[in-house]
Write a structure and sequence with these properties.
The protein is α+β, with helices and mostly antiparallel strands. Helices cover 33% and strands 38% of the residues. The protein has helices spanning 12-31, 34-53, 134-141, and strands at residues 5-10, 56-62, 65-70, 76-80, 84-91, 99-103, 106-110, 115-121, 126-130. It is elongated.
């Protein structure tokens, strides 16, 4: 069945942040003596891999399921639309961070920006999915 909603947000904050850190560690690797150089090079490689893994966040709705995944899809999440009690548009604090975060009261999935759609689940749990299309995602999640 075709997706009822599908949107991919580029992880600009994640990519730029990790690239800057990778450049810093590459400079460190260049200037450090041999034993420390290898640790800095490992850090560079790790940051490049993390930037790739969190390069985007794709959200889709189809077949009664909400699905979201980071970058190439190593981390995938799904939930039944029937498990969602309410949907609202929220603005995250910069202190909540980016990536996958567990904060007091909610779990956040975000790659860039501060806008998110908050899902109050019937179980009482709260999930926030960061997006640059909060109104479109919220509208797609509300019952037809």
């Amino acid at each position: 069945m075709a997706d009822r909603y599908r949107h991919t947000q580029r992880g600009t904050v994640m990519i730029v942040g990790m690239a800057l850190l990778a450049i810093f560690f590459a400079f460190m690797a260049y200037t450090l003596p041999s034993p420390g150089r290898w640790g800095a090079l490992v850090a560079v490689l790790g940051l490049i891999i993390l930037a790739w893994l969190f390069s985007s966040l794709t959200v889709s709705i189809s077949d009664g399921q909400l699905q979201w995944r980071f970058g190439p899809g190593l981390w995938r999440y799904r939930m039944a639309l029937a498990d969602i009690a309410s949907v609202s548009i929220v603005r995250n604090s910069l202190l909540n961070g980016f990536g996958i975060r567990i904060r007091p009261g909610f779990r956040l999935y975000n790659v860039s920006g501060l806008d998110a759609v908050e899902l109050q689940l019937k179980s009482g749990d709260i999930r926030r999915i960061g997006t640059d299309d909060a109104s479109g995602l919220a509208a797609a999640l509300r019952p037809e």
